[in-house]
Amino acid sequence: MKRFLAKQLRFLRDVLTQVGRHDDLGMAAEIAFVMMFAFLQALLLTVAILTLLGVQEDVFNTIVTFLGNFLPYELSVVIRRHIIEIAKSKTGGILVISLIGTVWTMTTLMFTLKKNFERTYHIQETRGFWKVRLIVFNIALAATLLMAISLVSLLFGLQIARYVEATLGYQHLLATLIRTFRLPIAFVAVSVVASLLYWAMINVQERIMEVLPGAMFFSVLWFLSTFGFGQYMKNFPYYNAIYGTLGAFVVLMGWMYLTSLSLLIGGEVNAEIYRRHINRKLVT
Asked: At what angle do helices 92-121 and 129-168 cross, to 10 degrees?
């Protein structure tokens, strides 16, 4: 037992050494910055799609109120104006522009991740230009969908359950299932996203099950950091006094930074496992 624990501690030490050597703390800030752009573009695309579907004005008011909770006042005013203009225009041109913006920012985010994963594995890309872009585009679509599912389950699962209870009855089976499985569904969705990123974005011969340890490590670390960050914000809510109207925006950027750092550390875990596997092959 002691030998096993010592082995795991040496492994974690080596992972943390690589985290410092590859400057993951700095690279996480770069990824978080791109992630913010991708988030805002995806939000505008969502508004454009809802507009063409003819949803009620209350939906847009809810989106604007949600944005006002964490964006700086000046920025939220600008985005609010754009959302209102999009909702009034009801033209397909805005949908096309927002779709292009979303695809561009999401693929930029994927390429930023890919660059850091390659540095983690100490490899260079040798696949074809269009093949890499097709992979990145497909992974961006899959990651967006699965992360939307996980965030809806994690952030709005209880509200959805209460709505089902109020509409269909307190003891309705669907509400019970949502309350019971919202966290497992979010965990599985996040793990699948991380597994796809680690498996498809890196030009090494690995099966998807071989990248699962890093994906699970990321998922656990992300849930713990998100929970811990939330508790800190709940118990020490002084950021508004320090940052003023930028307070909630800083909180959102902080959460994105923790997400990016967790993703990079999960990649370091897989890279360390891969290097040890290769070394064992060379020895034998």
From this structure: 110
